[in-house]
Design a protein that fits this description.
The complex is a heterotrimer of chains A (489), B (646) and C (102).
Chain A: H1 2-19, H2 24-48, E1 56-64, E2 69-75, H3 77-100, H4 105-124, H5 128-149, H6 154-183, H7 197-210, H8 220-226, H9 229-239, H10 241-254, H11 256-281, H12 287-307, H13 311-342, H14 358-371, H15 378-390, H16 395-421, H17 437-455, H18 458-461, H19 472-479
Antiparallel strand pairs in A: 1-2
Helix pairs in contact in A: 1-2, 1-4, 2-3, 2-4, 3-4, 3-9, 3-13, 3-17, 4-5, 5-6, 6-7, 6-8, 7-10, 8-9, 8-12, 9-13, 10-12, 11-12, 11-16, 12-13, 12-15, 12-16, 13-14, 13-15, 13-17, 14-16, 14-17, 15-16
Chain B: H1 2-22, H2 28-54, E1 63-65, E2 69-73, E3 76-79, E4 82-84, H3 86-109, H4 116-135, H5 139-157, H6 164-195, H7 200-206, H8 212-229, H9 238-241, H10 247-256, H11 261-268, H12 270-275, H13 277-298, H14 304-325, H15 328-355, H16 373-387, H17 393-408, H18 410-439, H19 445-452, H20 463-471, H21 478-493, H22 505-511, H23 522-548, H24 558-565, H25 570-617, H26 624-645
Antiparallel strand pairs in B: 1-4, 2-3
Chain C: H1 6-26, H2 30-55, H3 59-87
Helix pairs in contact in C: 1-2, 2-3
The chains are: A mainly alpha (489), B mainly alpha (646), C mainly alpha (102).
């Protein structure tokens, strides 16, 4: 019941907004109310969740009985956390939309709520066709949100983004159908394993485009730059984690053979993406570009963690997904506030914002410190676990990861000093005000969650059970180190 | 004991958070006092813990407290734990004690600055981070503290963020520290892969059973971090630039505490280092090389803070030398006395800089003795301690270290010995060069300007507050003079904690955690002491002859001068080797890979799609006869196919 | 039954069909194309009647009559189209009517 409530509440709220002729001033507050209710439901679910067990809060109803398709939803430990990330980030994004006073308010907030519902649906689904339905349902509101409320080049960005993602999704559809037919059921819980490389590739490509994984990231820069800040926050913070979910829930448990065969390729691509994203982030001329390439690097790191195929890597990947989601959403919202205040986010024109604006400076500095994963932060904990997990697979991967840590410091500090300290541009006038309460209250929940997680990252990392992997041989090789040390289950 | 240790750790961060959240509701003065109070509460906690520890027997003096698990993944667990043992309690006392004095001093020094509250919040945060580093109960928490002090250093060096040099220096410090963090992390990954844990006890117990490659690599990773944090060769370039921060910051972070973290690390993880002899020797060698090079560079510096900074680099070289040799107690002892006299020197320099409205160039100073007699005395005590003249603190500690080099023996030991003695000579020269240039000779115009009036014409901040604080005390307000006085006293008598050859309470205290690998004999101690004092006096005499009386001409070797002034060209080397290629790589990747291939790929695909469509479209000619022919032909083909298949 | 055997009739039928097909494909005037189409239909009619006579059933002959009816209808439509085109004063050349191009 809780799961279905989590999924249905945003959809119902969206429908209500679209159908009922509410005056436009009430659309925003109504959407925020719905988002807060959603967060409340999630908190209740989290309190009642048993983190040492398996699938919980599950509900199952037959859909196409003769094909074996059912409406099957439920949460594992790790997907509960992903859903939590979704509801929090979407609530803050909706809040930003209210503050920014978006036009066509009813349509806009309805779409944001629809997006929230679809993403939660993705994280809750336990049936492949249901998963696909929600996966595609995510794209619809994004298409409209980016295409209508985006920046000057939004049309091209939208087209590129949607086509790229759709190609991946169609391949995944083929794989889903093939897999479901061969297993005689579409339920993730009931289906067994398959050794078919092509089916695996269909899934892997779709998720590689979503994450993104090098070299399927061509849509990233434009989409993140042209979307409005809160949509970009949701895109980079939440939607990209659908790929993480897909890998952990669908690919790893059901395709042991192909995972083993393609592991090195994927790890190499992820490593390249990590290095490539970090290096490119270093020379971007605006805040959004840095966040975009930094996201590429972080998602590559998360994928490295997943394919390390050990508890260190897996828990690290889940923790890092949550941490990265929170921090990149916060960064996008702050970048949006900077843009709105001074009309630009280009480094050439910004500079010296710290003078007389302590709140902006503090928030940007704190968010920047989380972005670069200062030791002690939850991002650091996630990165550390991932790299510790990938080290036994190949020390080269961990070495690149270590270099990426230094590069992350370089590009983040560049952002901070370009906006706050250097006296570069003309956009920042001395009289412009500091962040007001309305703006602070949008970003603070994200930062508060980051702080809370930094004090106790084990909340996520020790409580993120995922479906068991079936490749016993692979697990044995990796889980028992050469000196008899066992460090995964 | 543990409760006191937790109090010690948490008080400063509570202070920092209080200042941050109170914002403008707290006056600037109040913020300063709150910050100072929180650090002194920490000191109180450390003292209570110390006395509790003294009352216990040796085995019970080590205690680990883990309230909850911070991070876990499968069988890998890291607890949020603190370790209180003889070594960490010494560090806790030094950090919170000297830290408290310096924060107190800052109340006067930073009075009237813009954004004072931010400064005090950062200072308290730094003390917390450093305490976390020394109290951390496992290697991961050590790394966390390690990174956080790097962060605090960035925030404080870049405090004057409207100055581009300060911002650049802060970034440089952070990035070089991040390099150290990365090497440590790599060492930790290897350790986890081989032992499955980062707990001190477990990994130290496992160390002798690890393969020699593993242990050497882990030790190398640790050494990388230590070298970056302590500004030793080859990662030393950030320290002189860090002098862009306010003087109390230089005193606390870059003299007394943060930069000594590397030494603490080696002492703490000595079971691993002891299995990796080559890395130990490397540490000692790097220490020796740094102490000589830093001493040479200090000879030509003209900024008062930079001279003291290079002196710090050099003294830490001594500590690395000692720690690398295995003389843990001696290295720690020098750490403690160095904290006293170096902080004293920085704070005294701060009084001078404050008095001269921000001037730091010693060529603009001179003849300050008659205008600032108390500062002169403080500076003299600090200098004597630094050079190692008995009975001041530095004598007892430095000589013990050099004696360890002698005790090591062998070719390596002799090289270290010669290097240390040469370093002592250089120390004498540059220290007293500074002393004489600043306090003696003809007063410069700047000095005369600020001397007559009770320096009421300062440029920074609220002038009224400034002159008010100064009227009451002439040279410096009470908040600045008291810490200097206390440190002066400590620099004088602090060395008596351990008298080589006579009584070794400090040595025995540290030996509870790490038994030394080399112990100089009493006669070695006495001989070395005599030689070192002699060398130090010779150096001081040379400085006196060159800069005070002008009897010896200052040698002028332009090539050498240039090399020293350019700090042996390390900055240029790193710029050309690392930063320029990185930027170039980023630029080329963007223009040659990202834009044409990755983003361009999409346009290409679109265009290809259009072209394919065009090709197929040519089949639709619109001509009736062609269509009819097509129908006929297909019928024929189908007919043949069906006939053949049947 | 007397008279030539089936193969001869089929040969003539085939020739008629072939001549008609060639006419459709090679001639440019729509009237001639229609004419050739009629020849094709007659060819197939002949084949139908031949087989009907050979097997002794009446089916082929019935089918041939329906083919004639369809042919008549189709000629009406075709001639109507040609008259409409001619009325528009367009040249009656099949190759010129290619606006439905790809």
């Amino acid at each position: 019941m809780l799961t279905t409530a989590l999924i249905v509440v945003p959809f119902a709220a969206a429908l209500f907004l679209w159908l009922v002729p509410l005056p436009r001033e009430y659309a925003g507050p109504f959407a925020i109310l719905a988002a807060v209710v959603e967060v409340g439901i999630w908190i209740r679910a989290a309190i009642r969740f048993d983190f040492s067990g398996g699938l919980q809060f599950s509900a199952r109803h037959n859909w196409f009985a003769d094909l074996g398709v059912s409406y099957h939803v439920g949460f594992y430990g790790f997907s509960l956390w992903l859903a939590g990330l979704t509801v929090v980030v979407c609530a803050c994004a909706i809040g930003y939309g209210v503050w920014a006073q978006r036009e066509h308010a009813r349509a806009y907030f309805g779409l944001m709520l629809f997006l929230t519902g679809s993403v939660v649906g993705v994280f809750a689904s336990q049936d492949l066709l249901l998963f696909y339905a929600f996966f595609e349902a995510m794209l619809i509101p994004l298409y409209v949100l980016v295409g209508v409320w985006g920046g000057p080049n939004r049309v091209r960005a939208t087209v590129v983004f949607v086509i790229y993602t759709m190609v991946g999704s169609l391949l995944m559809l083929a794989s889903i159908v093939a897999f479901g037919i061969s297993q005689h059921t579409f339920s993730l819980v009931d289906s067994g394993t398959s050794g078919n490389d092509w089916i695996f590739l269909g899934f892997a490509l779709a998720f590689a485009v979503k994450a993104p994984l090098f070299p399927f990231h061509g849509w990233l820069r434009q989409a993140y730059t042209e979307a409005s800040p809160e949509v970009a926050a949701v895109l980079s913070g939440v939607v990209s984690k659908a790929a993480v979910f897909g890998f952990i829930m669908i690919v790893l448990p059901h395709f042991p053979g192909p995972v083993h065969d393609f592991r090195t390729t994927i790890l190499v691509l992820a490593t390249i993406g990590l290095a490539y994203g970090s290096v490119l982030a270093f020379r971007q001329p605006d805040i959004r570009g840095v966040i975009a390439y930094s996201s590429l690097a972080q998602m590559s790191l998360i994928i490295m963690g997943i394919f390390a195929y050990s508890w260190l890597g897996m828990n690290g990947a889940v923790l890092q997904s949550i941490s990265h989601g929170l921090v990149s959403a916060a960064m996008f919202l702050l970048a949006g506030m900077v843009e709105r205040q001074w009309g630009t986010d280009s480094f050439a024109r910004l500079g010296g914002a710290a003078r007389g604006r302590p709140i902006l400076a503090t928030l940007l500095l704190v968010t920047g410190m989380f972005t670069l994963a200062v030791p002690g932060s939850t991002n650091f904990a996630g990165e550390f676990l991932i790299l510790a997990g990938i080290f036994p697979v190949g020390w080269g991967y961990a070495a690149v990861g270590a270099v990426a840590i230094v590069l992350a410091a370089m590009y983040t500090l560049r952002v901070i000093s370009a906006v706050l300290h250097d006296r570069g541009g003309d956009a920042v006038t001395p009289g412009s005000p500091d962040l007001r309460f309305g703006q602070i209250v949008l970003v603070v929940p994200l930062i508060a969650c980051l702080f809370a997680l930094s004090v106790w990252p084990n909340a996520v990392s020790g409580h993120s059970k995922s479906p068991p992997w079936s490749n016993k041989a692979l697990r044995t090789v990796l889980c028992e180190g050469p000196d008899g040390v066992v460090w995964c289950k | 004991m543990i409760a006191a240790a937790w109090l010690c750790l948490l008080a400063p961060v509570a202070g920092a958070l209080a200042i941050t959240f109170a914002g403008k509701r707290l006056t600037r003065r109040a913020a300063g006092w709150l910050s100072t109070a929180s650090v002194f509460v920490a000191f109180g906690g450390a003292v209570v813990a110390f006395f509790a520890m003294v009352g216990r027997e040796t085995p019970q003096r080590t205690e680990l407290s883990t309230p909850f698990t911070w991070l876990s993944a499968g069988t890998f667990h890291v607890g949020m734990s603190i370790l209180v043992d003889p070594v960490s309690i010494v560090m806790m006392l030094v950090v919170s004690g000297v830290g408290g004095l310096i924060v107190l001093y800052s109340i006067g020094y930073m009075d009237g600055e813009d954004e004072e509250r931010r400064y005090f919040a950062y200072m308290a945060f730094f003390v917390f981070a450093m305490l976390l580093l020394v109290e951390g109960g496992n290697l991961l928490l050590l790394l966390v503290g390690w990174g956080l002090v790097g962060l605090a250093s960035y925030l404080l060096i870049g405090f004057y963020h409207h100055r581009p040099e300060a911002v650049a220096a802060a970034k440089k410090a952070f990035i070089m520290n991040a390099i150290g963090d990365a090497t440590m992390a790599l060492g930790f990954f290897l350790l986890i892969a081989k032992t499955g844990t980062l707990e001190y006890g477990a990994s130290f117990a496992a160390a002798p059973h690890l393969s020699s490659t593993t242990v050497n690599l882990v030790a190398l990773g640790l050494l990388g971090g230590a070298v970056a944090k302590s500004a030793q060769l080859p990662l030393q370039t950030w320290l002189p630039d860090a002098m862009e921060g306010p003087t109390p910051v230089s005193a606390l972070i870059h003299a007394a505490t943060m930069v000594t973290a590397g030494v603490y690390l080696i002492v703490r993880t000595h079971p691993i280092f002891e299995q990796a002899h080559h890395v130990e020797d490397l540490a000692a060698g790097l220490g020796a090389a740094t102490l000589v090079i830093a001493g040479l560079i200090a000879l030509v510096q003209t900024d008062i803070k930079r001279v003291i900074a290079y002196s710090t680099m050099s003294q830490i070289g001594y500590m690395f030398l000692g720690a690398g040799l295995g003389a843990y107690a001696n290295a720690m002892f020098h750490l403690v006395t160095h904290a006293f006299f170096k902080a004293l020197l920085f704070l005294a320099a701060g009084i001078i800089i404050h008095h001269l409205a921000g001037e730091q160039d010693i060529r603009q100073m001179g003849g300050l003795k008659k205008f600032m007699p108390q500062t002169w005395l403080a500076f003299l005590i600090g200098s004597l301690a630094l050079v190692g003249i008995p009975p001041f603190a530095g004598f007892w500690s430095k000589d013990a270290l050099i004696a360890s080099a002698l005790a090591r023996g062998g070719v390596f030991g002799w090289i270290l010995l010669v290097a240390s003695l040469f370093g002592a000579l250089l120390t004498g020269i540059y220290t007293f060069r500074l002393f004489f240039r600043v306090f003696y000779g003809e007063p410069s115009e700047l000095v005369l300007e600020h001397a007559g009036s009770a320096h009421g014409d300062h440029e920074h901040g609220a002038e009224s507050a400034m002159s008010h604080s100064v009227h009451s005390h002439g040279e410096a307000p009470f908040t600045m003079a008291l810490p200097v006085a206390i440190l002066a006293v400590l620099s004088t008598v602090g060395g008596l904690l351990q008298v080589a050859g006579a009584w070794h309470p400090f040595g025995r205290w540290i030996a509870q955690t790490g038994a030394p690998l080399v112990e100089p004999t009493t006669s070695q101690d006495w001989v070395i002491s005599a030689i070192t004092v002699g060398v130090g006096l010779v150096g001081s005499w040379i400085a006196w002859a060159m800069y005070r009386t002008g009897r010896l001409a200052v040698p002028s070797v332009p090539a050498l001068q240039r090399v020293f002034e350019h700090k042996f060209y390390f900055d240029e080397l790193y710029d050309g080797l690392v930063s320029r290629p990185a930027q170039l790589l980023a630029e080329r990747l963007r223009s040659d890979v990202e834009t044409p291939y990755v983003e361009g790929a999409l346009s290409e695909i679109g265009r290809a799609g259009g072209q394919a469509g065009g090709l197929v479209g040519r089949m639709q000619t619109g001509l009736l006869r062609v269509y009819a022919f097509a129908i006929a032909a297909s019928l024929v083909v189908l007919g043949i196919v069906f006939l053949a298949v049947r | 039954m007397m008279g030539p055997s089936v193969p001869f009739y089929l040969a003539i039928s085939g020739c008629l069909f072939g001549i008609g097909a060639l006419g459709v494909l090679l001639r440019r005037s729509p009237l001639i194309v229609l004419l050739s189409l009629e020849i094709m239909l007659n060819g197939s009619n002949l084949a139908l009647v031949t087989f009907s006579r050979h097997f002794g059933t009446v089916d082929g002959q019935v089918f041939a009559i329906s083919v004639m009816a369809v042919a008549a209808a189709e000629v009406c439509v075709g001639l109507g189209l040609i008259v409409a085109i001619a009325r528009k004063k367009l040249t009656l050349d099949v190759d010129l009517f290619s606006e439905l191009r790809g």
